[in-house]
């Protein structure tokens, strides 16, 4: 449809205004550093003096296969960045934003992830979710974090996950087509999940051996063939959970578990 001649200048003005607005918005979202600059800082950093990148906007950068040398990254915004194959062992990421990051074969062992958000990361290169690509979070400090997405086969052994929210109906608000957090075949041995919210989580085949699960919430979770042997489930809530072939032998606090009578396939679990 052709615009009347008198309206063309107004239309052009609107287009220019929109372009200017888009440009200013893009500038506001621009990262504080380029991937090249971050790489140079990390490469030149002395292991005895970790680089300090705290509080920076590092959104949408290609930071794959980097050694972060225990960098200080507290409150950093890594939204959409690629951390595939990167070594973030011992890094300080307190209250950082790791939403939509790529975490294929990444290593966070011993990192401080207290209060972080890790929402809807890309954890695998294909929809097949190859466990060989799962990332390692051994011994991390992640209390109070908000986590939602696919973490099948991830290794959280010995980590502090107190009060972590894995629930899709928490304050994160992410419900979309990935409607539940997946921790299938994940290693959660000896983790501290006291008070954590695992509502609707799919933790089939997960290893919860010797874990602290006191006051944890597993409402409507899929716990089929998960191993809870030796764990402490005192006052945990299993209402609506699927216990098909789950192993609860030598588990503490079963007499205090809430909702045990309202679980699915309880008769098929091992007690």
Task: Identify the notable features of this structure and list them briefly.
little secondary structure, 2 strands, two-stranded parallel sheet
What is the topological layout?
Elements: H1 8-29, H2 35-44, E1 117-119, E2 146-148
Parallel strand pairs: 1-2
Descriptive notes:
By secondary structure, the chain is mostly loops. The protein has two helices and two strands; from the N terminus they run H-H-E-E. It has helices at residues 8-29, 35-44, and strands at 117-119, 146-148. A two-stranded parallel sheet has the order 1-2. The longest helix has 22 residues, at 8-29. The radius of gyration is 22 Å and the shape is elongated. The N and C termini lie far apart (73 Å).
Q: SSE order in H/E notation?
A: HHEE
Count of individual helical segments: 2
Main-sheet strand order equals 1-2
- Bin the helical content: 10-25%
Outline the low-pLDDT stretches.
Answer: 14-28, 170-175
Briefly note the structural class of the backbone: little secondary structure
